[in-house]
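Work Package 4 report. The design task specified in the project plan requires that, given a folded chain encoded as structure tokens, an amino acid be chosen for each position. We show below one input record used in the internal validation round.
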């Protein structure tokens, strides 16, 4: 399934390394969105408005595939994605793996838009926008 639009209600700006309030901000963001988990549909954490790479500032928004009252739309760019299957509990470790792959030159990220998809059954996937390899 190729997403074209996501609709977000909650957003925050942060930095993985320079924001001492990072854990608290994520907790508050997910607290705001807690009611969405009762909808029994996929929920998305969208990473966008990157200042640079994973060490720079960025925005995170919580979204659905359909609009709710007050939701803003965000167009999902047509780009190639590296997909990392995980669980909700393993999301932080999966991001550590993604950053390691990038540092090792094994993952060439675009930094346009990335997202986590949380399915109602507890499974999760992280979609990382990647540069298209020449010849593919």
């Amino acid at each position: 399934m190729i997403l074209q639009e996501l609709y977000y209600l909650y957003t925050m700006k942060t930095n993985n390394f320079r924001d001492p309030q990072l854990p608290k901000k994520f907790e508050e963001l997910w607290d705001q969105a807690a009611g969405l988990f009762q909808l029994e549909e996929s929920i998305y954490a969208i990473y966008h408005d990157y200042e640079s790479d994973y060490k720079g500032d960025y925005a995170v928004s919580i979204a659905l595939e359909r609009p709710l009252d007050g939701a803003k739309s965000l167009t999902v760019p047509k780009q190639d994605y590296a997909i990392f299957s995980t669980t909700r509990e393993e999301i932080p470790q999966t991001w550590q793996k993604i950053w390691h792959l990038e540092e090792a030159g094994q993952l060439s990220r675009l930094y346009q838009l990335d997202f986590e998809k949380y399915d109602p059954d507890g499974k999760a996937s992280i979609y990382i926008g990647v540069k298209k390899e020449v010849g593919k």
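The radius of gyration is 15 Å. Validation will be extended to a larger panel in the next phase.
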